[in-house]
Specification:
The structure is a single chain. With 355 residues, the protein is of the alpha/beta class. The protein has a single domain (25-325), classed as 3-Layer(aba) Sandwich (Rossmann fold), CATH 3.40.50. It is built from nine helices and eleven strands. It has helices at residues 4-20, 42-54, 87-90, 115-126, 145-151, 241-244, 270-273, 276-290, 328-354; strands spanning 27-31, 74-78, 95-99, 130-134, 155-158, 162-168, 183-187, 190-192, 204-209, 229-233, 260-264. The longest helix has 27 residues, at 328-354. Residues 28-288 form the ThuA-like domain.
Length: 355
Amino acid sequence: MYALPSLFLSISLIACVAFAQDPSWPTILLFTHTAGYRHEAIPTAISTITSLGNGSLVLSDDNVDSTIKSGRWNTNNSEDATLFNDVASLKQYDAIVFAFTTDVDPPGVGSLLNDDQTANLLEYIEQGGSFAGIHSATNCLYSYPAYGRLVGAFFTYHAQSQRVTLKPTTRDHPSTSKLPDTLTISEEMYHLRTDPRKLPSPATALLTNASAYPDPGGQRGEGNPQPLAWYRSGSLLTSGASALGGDLDGQTQCTGGGGKTFVTTLGHEIATWNNAAFQGHIQGGIGWLLSVSANDGTAVSTNGGSSSSSSSSPSQSSTSSDETRSSPSSASHLGASVAVLTAALGALFACTLAL
């Protein structure tokens, strides 16, 4: 009889896994490999992104854009660089997310990806793949200018983590439409070597700093207002040396890329990931990247993954009955989960009788 609690736990976990994965949802590769500094917030970030994707973390209407609130995705988290050994394996993903990836600068010791693996990532982008970068995604692969163009800019330095106030620079995007007018949190303020708004495919800034804080100063090339998060659509790898500067020049054979990027430099602190406003920022960014909508958990895919006809453009948050109505996919997922749980309870009852 003492085996029953562990048996029930195992069955419950099976039921939870069945609910958390659905082949009709888009799938992201959440890559958290580090060759340099390793952030303490990585496990919390993985849990948050996974939970937002599978619906086990549900935000209130005050924190998440209605257009992506019910959108779902599968998360495959890995630190295995061999996943980048060929483009075919990358094309199973609807988007690639670099979170807390770090390198050394220059990357003479412990590069995040080797030359061939980086080339495959860039080919994935050229073929229409989309990309998200979270926190130190700008702090890696310095020897590859095309990656710098993809992520938007390379990191240069940050002030110490401290209490700062942020404000959205636009609300015409799901990642910022529900943010408060000012958001005060403890975070690192990233400075960049170049301005992502000067790319041939110019970035649109989403967040900026709205407070004074101690800053030691250093190389800054990000322009004003200071971009702390941004998004881009199309021509993700196209070069334009006159506007980019030395960090992003070169590798001109890498060009085009019809997908989308969402980048936020926030997320250093574990407390940030537990902040509902920031969680909405992340869900809005990844949801927009995948084109998931409140009415359909699937996404427009350019890489052989899931597909639907949902819109891919940024949209202003609007209130509709969809906010309070379960999506068709959510209903089917719930039904499947109930069926699995019922079967699990039946098995548990049978085991109980046997004992």
